[in-house]
Amino acid sequence: VQLQASGGGLVQAGGSLRLSCAASGRTFSSYVMGWFRQAPGREREFVSAISWSGGNIYYADSVKGRFTISRDNAKNTLYLQMNSLKPEDTAVYYCAARIGVEVTTIQYQYHYWGQGTLVTVSS
C-alpha cells in the first residue's frame, strides 16, 4: 500500500488543522492505521491509531481530548483532526499502516509509511 499524507501547514496556537492520509494499493479497510510525529531533534512518537472498523482507537496522553482520528474506508482515507494546537505539537506527522487486527502504539509494528506532512504551530 502507498500512503500520501497531506494537510499540514502553519497555524497559530489554539488553532486547528485536519490531516489526511490517502491510501492506494491493497484494500485499505484491512489495515490498522496510525499517526506518528517527529519533532525537531526528537525521536518519532506515537500520536493515535485506529482499527479497521474504527471501533478501537488509541491516543497518546499528550493529544487526548484535542485530536480525533477517523477513517473513511470507502474513500481509502485516514484523518487526524487536530484542535487546540500547541507549539509543542510542531512536528512532521506521518501516517502508517499495519497488517493485522491488533491496534498498537509501537511504530516498528507498522509495515507501511507515508512521506510525512509538516505541522508548525506558532505561539
Order of helices and strands: EEEEEEEEEEE
Compute the number of helices: 0
Q: List the uncertain runs.
A: none
Report how far the terminal alpha carbons are from each other. Answer: 37 Å
Proportion of strand residues: over 45%
Assign a percent range to the helix content: under 10%
What would the average pLDDT be, to the nearest integer? Answer: 96
Shape: globular
Radius of gyration: 13 Å
Return the structural class: mainly beta
Main pleated-sheet profile = 7 strands, mixed
Count of strand segments: 11
Task: Give an overview in words.
The protein is 0% helix and 51% strand. The chain is mostly beta strands. The strands form two sheets. Strands 2, 4, 5, 6, 9, 10 and 11 form a seven-stranded mixed beta sheet that branches.
What attributes does this structure have?
123 residues, mainly beta, globular, single chain
Ordered list of secondary-structure elements with their pairings:
Elements lengths: L1 E5 L2 E4 L4 E8 L6 E8 L6 E6 L6 E3 L7 E6 L4 E6 L8 E9 L12 E2 L3 E6 L1
Parallel strand pairs: 2-11
Antiparallel strand pairs: 1-3, 3-8, 4-5, 4-9, 5-6, 7-8, 9-10, 9-11
Summarize the structure.
With 123 residues, this protein is mostly beta strands. Helix content is 0%, strand content 51%.
